[in-house]
Amino acid sequence: MTNLLAINGSPRGRESNTDLLLQPYLAGAREAGATTETIYVTDLKINECRGCFTCWTATPGRCVFRDDMPAVLAKIKAADILVLGTPLYHYGMTARLKRLLERTLPLADPHIIKSGDHYTHPGRGDDFDSGMVLIANCGFPDRMHFSALEEHLRQLTKDRPERLLASILCAGGEILRHGTQAFDWYFAALHQAGKEIVAQGHLSTETTATLARELVPVEMYLQMANAYWDSQIKAEEHTDTLSGAGENGAAASTNPVTPGPGTIQAGEAPASPGQGIAAAGKPSPVSDSLTAGPAGNSGATPSPSERAPAAAVLPQNCREAVLGMPAVFNPAAAGNLQAVLQINLHGEGGGDYYLVIANGRCKAFEGRSPEATTTIDAPADVWLQIAREELDGAAALMQGLYRVTGDFSLMMQMNELFSGPATGTAAPAPARPAGPLPIPGMAWLSVAFLPWTLNWLGTGLNLNPLAGWAAPAVLALAIWLYRRLYNRPTWMDSITAVYFLVTGLLVLAGYNLSAAAADSSGNLVLGAAWLATLATAEPLTAAYSRWNYPAGLANNPLFLRTNAIITAVWGEAFLFMAVVALGMALMPGQKYLWLVLRYLPLVLAGVFTAWFPNWYPAHVAASGPRAV
Length: 628
Hints:
Helix content: 40-55%
Strand order of the largest sheet: 2-1-3-6-7
């Protein structure tokens, strides 16, 4: 039976990313019939080798120190396979693991012999003759940074190169603990690697290729890592950001050769750049969840059939959710925006955070900013559900589950601001519907009224019936066909076409409508049509106003509720005008009163429409359930 000994050289021991890689590998080895044991160097007392060579001279094979190393040497001598696990520290193994390996000197004979083209110390008998596997991870997103560590292992096994059974090198390994099921494919490959090393002594080509794949695209990883380190820079720096200073960002904190807490070359960074992976905290529906899965390494990109299914990477807590937002910030969508978004989360797991958006950059900080332009107050559990997409953010706002004060326009941009940096381009709302006519979305509502305008002029001026009815019918049909061809007709387009085709045919058949009857019936049809759309998924004005906003806003409950109220106001205004038209016909002596009453609803509805869309969403956001 194969005896496998794993040595975890990470100072974080059982909580390390190194152990996250080792355990599925060891599980695979056990499945193939091996016995396994893991030694955590952080648990051991191992003195530094002092170079006295007593283990070669006075007490051959035995060190002068009486620490935990003799027991480790006994385990190494008994192992058939030795697995060295380490994060990458300054392009090599950790000092703890290096210290342990230096203390294996008693296993070597002091005599120098020539072996092939090089000189070496032979082992004592069969000591230290096991196969070796290297499992390492680092914070950089590419594998080239392991080259020095790989060379070290090659030197350790150069007497018998076949002893180096495999090198499993995980670039960007810190992200694994934050990916949940998104990286199941990688852990499965580690499990398979453990089986293959025990069963056949080497990795298959397929397993090797899988383990060499990128965990996430490099650009995405850089955004995540740098956003995290930005979030760790002291909060006072955000003032420089707002004033245009600090264009070089967090260059110092991400310098891979600068010692100290900011060094991210170590695969076991003291805090996780992988926290940035969550596309978190968006208060409106998100359709572009950040996903992670295998992508091609430097070489051929795997085909879709070769890729494991990707899964959404979700934040584990509110801190990850908020501090992860800069990782999916889209500078192109921000443009010249300068804002400070304060997010206050209360209850268990909560905290105070703020985002500074300026100069095309976004930084996250813990604490409260006196310069906040928009403030969100939410229970921590609600915000985490929104961040994990278990709760619709806009619906939660409508239900009063959290509140927003200050500049509400920032909330309307959240989906685009945090849509992800992958494309580097903004996703603005289309300026107009499809088709050759360069007419903006809202302008189509005016176009939809053109048949009505012709009809009102024709009947009001007692023109030829052809002008008052036939021409509007032809125009209404043309508008409907155009919309049908390039987009979809709105209720306004359809009802207008039906009304004028029917009334036009009646007029051609000799049933001419009086001006009063035409006025009253037309407004009655308009009012009924507008109010009828309140029973549909899209109130009538939303079909036009949605072109002024990002595409994702079209299904936003707050957007739909706002448009429903505006639609209801106009529908009631048209019905009132229908009643006024009848009054004018029945009591023509009150002409001026009727004229005032006829146009007053239009004026009031117009003023209301200009004011309400800005006031109502902010009122709901700030007032909670009382405003719904």
